[in-house]
Amino acid sequence: MHVVVDLRRCDNHGQCTFSAPAVFTLNQDGLLSFRRSGLDSYASESLDEDLRADVEEAALMCPMQAIMVES
């Protein structure tokens, strides 16, 4: 499983950090920690399937609908 975040849509509300803190964290500036990893989108490395429920909840909770879960 991979997570893809559309960084053009993401406004750093941080709702994802509550649902999936093992995947999403905010840095000291209040930005998602992987912001510097991409300009338009961020694609995670392969994530453990045990995180799927949390990641899917994070995608649902995102007010900007910027998170996609891919197999």
Mean pLDDT: 93
Q: Assess the beta-strand content as a share of residues.
A: 15-25%
Distance between the termini: 4 Å
Main pleated-sheet profile: 3 strands, antiparallel
Describe this structure in words.
This protein has helices at 15-19, 52-61; strands at 2-6, 41-43, 67-70. It has 71 residues and is an alpha+beta fold. A 3-stranded antiparallel β-sheet has the order 2-1-3. The longest helix is centred in the last third of the chain and has 10 residues, at 52-61.
Brief sketch in words of this structure:
With 71 residues, the chain is an alpha+beta fold. It contains two helices and three strands, in the order E-H-E-H-E.
Q: Which key terms come to mind for this protein?
A:
71 residues; three-stranded antiparallel beta sheet; alpha+beta
Helix/strand layout:
Elements: E1 2-6, H1 15-19, E2 41-43, H2 52-61, E3 67-70
Antiparallel strand pairs: 1-2, 1-3
